[in-house]
Amino acid sequence: MTLAALELDLDVFTGPFDLLLALVLREEIDLLELELADVVLAYLDHLEQRGELDLETATEFIVLVAALLELKSRLMLSADEEELLDLEPGEAAEELLARMLEARRYRGAATYLAERLAAQEGVRYRSAPLPAFARQAAEEAAPPAGERTYDPAILGRALGGLLRTPPAINLRHIVVPRVSVAERLAHLRRLLSSGRFDFDDAVRDADRMTVAVTLFALLELYKRGEADWIQDEPFGSIAVSPGPQAAVSGVRVEPRAGLAASRPDPEGEP
Fold first, then answer.
1. Which CATH architecture fits 175-264?
2. Angle subtended at Cα 103 by Cα 98 and Cα 106, rounded to the nearest 5 degrees
3. Rg (the chain; Cα; Å)
4. Per-residue exposure over 238-270, b if at least 16 CB sit within 10 Å of its own CB, e if not
5. Full-model pTM
6. Domain range list for the chain
7. How confident is the model over 104-146, as pLDDT tens digits?
8. What is the pLDDT of residues 55-70, one digit of tens each?
9. What's phi and psi for 264, nearest 5 deg?
10. Those residues with Cβ within 8 angstroms of residue 256's Cβ, 6 or more apart along the chain or in another chain
């Protein structure tokens, strides 16, 4: 809730709260005739109707009402007592206006940050469901529905699995690469010359290092505009197709059966 949404129905004013402040500062409404207690009661009624409390908005309301009370108290003092005060009514009005402008700047900054946060939704971390093989393993490890998890047989099988010697750690992925990015680039370009293909087919029966190098090669082709891909869901299949710049590398792209197909250009021309 913002203070602009607070509607007031008073003897001397009817309308939004921010308009009332503007009229008071322009001296179009006599502050001495304004019952600030009615303003506070109207705000409390509004909070009760909404059923929630925004601490930031409530703090801003308290600050503004306190400033109005101070300004009204100065107007109610006699001339002799007014000389003892540090601020004149005009200075108090300017101070109130300065506080309102500062609060508006903070609200503008908060809105800007919220827009920036919303614009970066696609590049921040997003949670994804477990891949199919992990979900299957979790379902197999879980006890059947309705079965007692404290059954001695179930506990025995669980402890037995913990006592087994784990398999040897596979270190093949940290050995010296046996394939280069240039080789995988050539491999992907050969597949692109036949049209659309699945990334799993490009790395079938390959080791982890080859899969990683192939992925780097695919990113390089995407950067050059020679390839594009579509993945409908997290951990799903990746459909790779020729990109808009595929002809630059000597591959002519033509439509075939509703998909983007390509074949080598014998003359090497785009």
1. Orthogonal Bundle (1.10)
2. 130
3. 35
4. bebbbbebbbebebbbeeeeeebbbeeeeeeee
5. 0.34
6. 3-118, 175-264
7. 888 889 889 888 888 877 776 666 777 777 778 777 766 666 5
8. 777 887 788 888 888 8
9. -60, 140
10. 195
> Which tokens go with 17?
């709260």
CA–CA gap between residue 36 and residue 67 (Å, rounded): 11
Rounded to the nearest 10 degrees, the angle between the axes of helix 55-76 and helix 36-50 is 170
Q: Retrieve residue 72's tokens.
A: 């009204």
